Amino acid sequence: MPSSSRLLGLLLASVLAGAVAPCQDPQRLVDPDPGPDPTSVPVERRLVVSGSDLYFAGSVGAEGVELLRLPGAGTQPVLVRDIHPGAASSQPFALTADGKGGVYFFARDAAGFELWHSDGSSTGTQLVKDIYPGLASSLVPNDAVRGPLGMLGALLLFGAEDAQGYALWRSDGTSAGTVKVVALPQVTTRQPLQQPTEAGGMLYFFAQDPAARAVRLWRSDGTAANTRALASLPLRAHELDRPPYRLRVLAGAVLVSGPDGVSRVDPQSGQLQNVFFQPGLEHVAYAVIPDPTLPTGELLCFSGATYLCRTDGTPPGSRSYFPASGPGVIGTPDQHPAVWNGQMVFFGFDLLHGEELWRTDGTAAGTTRITDLRAGPWDSTGSSGYGRERVLIGDGARVYFPATDGSSGVELWEYDGGTIRLVADIQAGAGDSFPRSMVRWPGGGVAFVADVAPGSPAVFVYTPANRQLIRVGGTFDAYAPRTRPARIAGLIAHDERLLFAAHGSATGSEPWGFDGGSAGARLLADLQVGAGSGLRDHDLGNGPDHGALEGVALGKHLFFSGYDQPGKLALFRSDGTSAGTTRVAGLDLEGGNGWPVRGAATDAWLLLEGYTQASGHGLYATTDGTALRFLAPLRAGRFLRLNGRVLVTEGEVPGVHAVWVSDGTAAGTVPLLQFPAPVGELHWARVGERVCMAVGRAAGELWETDGTPAGTRLLRNGSIAALVDLDGDLVALERSSGSVSLTRGDGTVAGTKVVATGLPASATALTLVGARLFFVVAKTTGTELWTSDGTAAGTSLVRSFPLEGSDLPTLHEMRSLGSRRLLFQVRGLASLGTEWWQSDGTAAGTRPWFDLRPGAGDGALGPGVLVRGSLWFVGDDGRSGSRDGDVFGIEVGAITYPFGSGCAFQSDEPRLHATDPVLGNTVHVALRSRHPATFGVFAIGLPLAVPIELDARCRMFVDPSLGPTLAFTTDAAGRFDWPSMMIPNLTSLRGVRMAGQSALGINANPPLGTDLSAPLAFVLGD
Q1: Rg from Cα positions in the chain
Q2: 269-282 pLDDT, tens per residue?
Q3: Cβ–Cβ < 8 Å for 420, 373
Q4: Phi/psi class of residue 429: alpha, beta or left (left: φ > 0; alpha: ψ in -120 to 50)?
Q5: DSSP-assigned letter for residue 384
Q6: What is the pLDDT of residue 333?
Q7: Residue 13, H or E segment
Q8: Contact present, 861 and 874 (Cβ < 8 Å)
Q9: How high is the pLDDT of residue 56?
Q10: How far apart are CA 739 and CA 6, in angstroms?
Q11: What are the two backbone dihedrals, phi and then psi, of residue 789, each rounded to the nearest 5 degrees?
């Protein structure tokens, strides 16, 4: 059994090659309504050279985003054709050079997204064929659109959808010559072909098969008779979004590199033959063809995290080696090396120098680090960001790459074999221009996209002959795919999925889901078939704070209400997939007025407030949604789970009449506290295994309960504004004599101490971040953010937000972003508008997280939810013109957070806590349960794409085939704290997602009667 300090290191070694860097700029979610939309923004971020011209998607005027052509480095781009006339955008994407100076691409007009071709002139830019007639689109832009369509000589091969489904198509550029080849039944709808590669008169490509957790390798010559799948290549859980396989051609042979090595496709049988094979030991991350002048004609590749390999396409001619400088982390899976003078140039890593520029000639002695551009163990590739690319481009004489020396930001550099020089500091000083989307410029040089200011990308052309850098005219948007989801509301995080309501032109308002994959957002169900809305339209128009999709989770399902026919409200449940979204029971909420489903769930049953014709309005319970049992005629306010029961306030705030408890039965649904008159204010917080409740404003009371009438008692009198649990202690903001004090203790008079006194009476919004507290103080001159570690000396002002106009700045959405940072929204700042801010408890570390709508523009932010390590929210960046906002997501870096649910057979499931997994630091994990002196195991590994259902209640979220486990025994209080686990300081680990889960009381296999903790997600980063 390995020690806990080695637990993460052992597992991380197996996933190192699959790591990707997180993006740090907000990205829109793919459009759930892909019909014509004049407010959309472009999705294509690649530059394409065809003949002597450069093509890209952008705008030179008020025409929207259209196809642009740059005929020369010293000229300005010209509009090829305004395909979607006026300010509307045709959104060209999947641009592909046709070999004759023109391009194929998909774009939209009134017929939706269809196949177009252009010879570079306006009259020569024509729709090839309307494959899916009407408003439907045959291919839509999404995250999977990362490369070109497939060219086989003069023939175009591509994936598209018509009324019969998704298929492989071919085109000669004419409508009559654009025909279906074969259906691709295993492929997710409207996914483009991946890595189309021509060899020996055939086009090879990958097509993903999510249901089988695999990608299929296909080949075709454009005829049905010669189109077939060659092999099915498996995917592990962490590879579903980014398959690790690469296609390359060497001396006419097709090679496939993957996690276990390099294989060769037999040209006759189509079978894969092992060439360089090391199953389960190392990972071949990427492979390239060296310069043709290299006599051996071999292929060089990165093999795993420690060495290089080379092969001539045969097993005897394949070997691996360490660099002459000794073993180290060499290369990363998301980079594109370059060829220069018969050598391969790439980014490599060692512990003393970080990630720097390396080169290899295919020998151990000839594999060396070129320079330490950013001196010391710092990476010259810079910090992570949405534009960060490890792409190197060679023009024969030079290699171009994005990097930083520590004084400038990430800018474009060149290497000529002897000298490394900065091409230009586009964003002067420490600002990052993030050069990306690089392509070779005809005649030498490079064309690329870079930010002239944060969030303001432009196209540049660099010619080395005269060292001239030219900024291309027009506007260009190089963000990831981000078309507008029309009328979004009600974002919900559930089981690492994002659920929300969206209005589609053909479907009305319906539930949508997003699991973080490249397929983007998907319609879960058309509850009311056709244009009728299954979710109430009027809720969508109220803005992002009034969601039309609200629900309660029980296990893997989210329960919500909707209309399957006009005026008939029903109860639905969804596991975040289309197949798992079904109607489960009739439920007439508020007599048909559309009251959303509200309630809370334990591990075994769900408590709902609702209405049925038989029993009227009140509380109902269900175990799986198939049957409802009436509990009590109660109009509820708020719900809180505690020790296998649910606490419910009777009445809305203000006006709480009582606090009830329910065990899921009518007999066990009883009042705990009843007030002589309605209470105008009630605060509650779970502290360990009890709930503390503060009621009343002027002469209030502080109560505690363990969820039973016998365990409910008055602690003391006092007017309390906010409560929070700090490591088992109750911390409160208490009002007294016109001021507020910060107190800490067990809640009793004798067991409570004053931490800080004399705070303004407006102090409120107590938020816990790790072991630090934050609260807000409103004054006439502005609003202040304060922090405290629970001691008088550790309580201080963090930052003041002064009055900038007539409106007082306000702080909203106060929440913990992991264990280190506070995340909040600031509204009312005339200079910035409404934007997200973050704070680490210091004045310098309290700053805007990003400026969604640059300058004084108001981002119109809605509440945020955390899914798969990204914060998702509704907002307006001013680009789409959407009145109801777009869905944005931004990766948050190193963070640990709970998701999903395990199970508990005796009480509440055990709870895991951890600090953020910061690269180069230790992470501390702790378990809290109600089981003293109990044996258990802790497992950490890759998260399963689909949790293992152990029985009707318990689910395992960690892949049991990977990573070790750690046995332990809880102490007398039901706790266990693991020794520190070290996270390697490797930039290639940024963005790696892992999961941890504990099991307590193991007495059988499978574990029956065993409590499983809720899983804990670990996202590695800075």
Answers
A1: 30
A2: 888 887 766 554 44
A3: yes
A4: left
A5: -
A6: 47
A7: helix 4-15
A8: yes
A9: 86
A10: 50
A11: -100, 15
DSSP, res 30: P
Q: Lowest-confidence range among 238-247, 493-502, 637-646, 945-954?
A: 238-247
Residue type, 890: I
How many C-beta atoms lie closer than 10 Å to residue 249's C-beta? 17
What are the residues facing 276 on neighbouring strands? 262
Residues 925, 916: Cα–Cα separation, whole Å: 10
Distance (Å, rounded) from C-alpha 267 to C-alpha 254? Answer: 8
Query: Do residues 485 and 33 make contact, with C-beta atoms less than 8 angstroms apart?
Result: yes
Which pair of tokens denotes residue 555? 């296990």
CB 409 within 8 A of CB 427: yes
Q: What is the mean pLDDT of residues 1008-1021?
A: 84
Q: Dihedral through CA 929, CA 933, CA 937, CA 943, nearest 10? A: 0
Burial of residue 984 (number of CB atoms within 10 Å: 0-12, 13-18, 19+): middle
CA torsion sign for 27, 33, 34, 37 is negative
How many residues are recorded in the chain? 1022
The answer to whether the Cα torsion of 43, 47, 48, 53 is positive or negative is positive
**757 CB-near residues (< 8 Å, 6+ apart):** 739, 741, 742
Element (H, E) at 540: helix 537-540
* Beta carbons of 787 and 820 less than 8 angstroms apart: no
Buried b (16+ CB within 10 A) or exposed e, 849-886: bbbbbbeebbbbbbbbbbbbbbbbbbbbbbbbebebbb
Q: Per mean pLDDT, which range of 330-334, 339-343, 488-492 is the poorest? A: 330-334
Report how far residue 833's alpha carbon sits from residue 121's, in angstroms, rounded to the nearest whole number. 43
pLDDT at 128 over 80: yes
- Please tell me the predicted confidence (pLDDT) of residue 1: 41
Q: Which pTM value belongs to this model?
A: 0.57
For 660-694, how does the pLDDT look when each residue is reduced to its tens digit (9 = 90+)?
Answer: 999 999 999 999 988 887 777 788 898 888 999 98
- 898 HSE (CA, 13 A, CB side): 15
Write the single-letter amino acid at 894.
Answer: A
pLDDT at 303 over 70: no
Of 1-15, 129-143, 323-337, highest mean pLDDT: 129-143
Higher pLDDT, 539 or 89: 89
Q: Which SS3 state, helix, strand or coil, does residue 337 take?
A: coil
Q: Using DSSP bridges, classify how beta strands 782-788 and 796-802 pair: parallel, antiparallel or unpaired.
A: antiparallel
**Contact of 679 with 696, CB cutoff 8 Å:** yes
Give the number of other Cβ atoms within 10 Å of residue 1005's Cβ.
Answer: 7
SS3 state at 309:
strand
Which runs of E-coded beta strand occur in 91-154? 93-97, 103-109, 112-118, 125-129, 150-152
Residue 749 clears pLDDT 70, i.e. is over it: yes
Q: What is the pLDDT of residues 132-155, one digit of tens each?
A: 887 778 887 764 445 688 999 999
Residue 471's pLDDT band (cuts 50, 70, 90): confident
pLDDT at 455: 64
Q: Give the closest residue to 55 by CA, choosing from 80, 35, 31.
A: 80
Beta bridge partners of 199: 202
* CB-based contact 702:716 (threshold 8 Å): yes
Region of residue 450 (left: phi > 0; alpha: psi -120 to 50; beta: else):
beta
DSSP for 482-539, written as a single string: ----SSEEEEEEETTEEEEEEEETTTEEEEEEE-SSTT--EE---SSSSSS-SS-HHH
Does 52 score more than 70 pLDDT? yes
- Answer positive or negative: Cα dihedral of 344, 349, 353, 355: positive
Other CB atoms within 10 Å distance of the CB of residue 544: 21
Alpha carbon distance 267, 257 (integer Å):
17
| Long-range contacts formed by 648-653: CB under 8 A, 24+ apart | 648/607, 648/619, 649/682, 651/678, 653/680, 653/681, 653/682
Distance CA 887, CA 879 (A): 13
110 within 8 A of 36, measured Cβ to Cβ: yes
